[in-house]
Design a protein that fits this description.
It is built from 6 helices and 6 strands. The protein has 161 residues and is α/β, with parallel strands linked by helices. The chain starts with a strand and ends with a helix.
Length: 161
């Protein structure tokens, strides 16, 4: 199976998640094409699975991730799975503060990327992967890379069936 991972990362946290996904998918014996949207912008038309990631910034995906999803050739990807992932800020423990902060986190970049893919008629894997950072700029919260690894194993298993 050929897997495309396209990621935009501002502080490096989302890229870390993408690299973990890549490593786990390669361990399972699959080919991975890694596209860092900060360095290159190419929209692939070949692959069996596409993973697109972005940090959640001001409740949205980055412009690079949005452009990537909008330029994706729907005809080429029809019937193939698209999955999304993001990183997001931590939520406060206080219930009132948490409620206020949710508007900046939900549905996040992953949710908006998934919605955009679905609007375009693509087959979207649900749920998306959402990883939390410890602080606004990172690092990733404890256990988030392990969660990303498990997500990679699960999605590969579900696609390979």
């Amino acid at each position: 199976m050929k897997v495309i991972i396209a990621v935009d990362s501002v502080h490096g946290n989302t890229k870390q998640v993408a690299e973990t996904l890549k490593d786990e998918i390669e361990k399972a014996g699959h080919e991975v094409v890694f596209i860092n949207l900060r360095k290159e912008f190419r929209v692939p038309s070949e692959g069996d699975l596409l993973l697109v990631g972005s940090p959640t910034r001001v409740a949205k995906m980055t412009g690079k991730a949005k452009r990537f999803m909008k330029r994706l050739d729907v005809a080429a990807w029809t019937g193939r799975t698209v999955a999304t992932f993001d990183t997001h800020m931590p939520l406060p423990d206080d219930p009132k503060e948490r409620e206020k902060a949710l508007k900046w986190v939900e549905p996040g970049a992953a949710g908006k990327l998934s919605a955009l893919a679905a609007e375009r008629g693509l087959k979207v894997h649900s749920p998306p992967l959402r990883c939390m950072v410890s602080d606004m700029k990172g690092p990733l919260a404890p256990g988030e890379l392990e969660k990303a690894g498990e997500y990679a194993r699960q999605i590969v298993a579900s696609i390979s069936r």
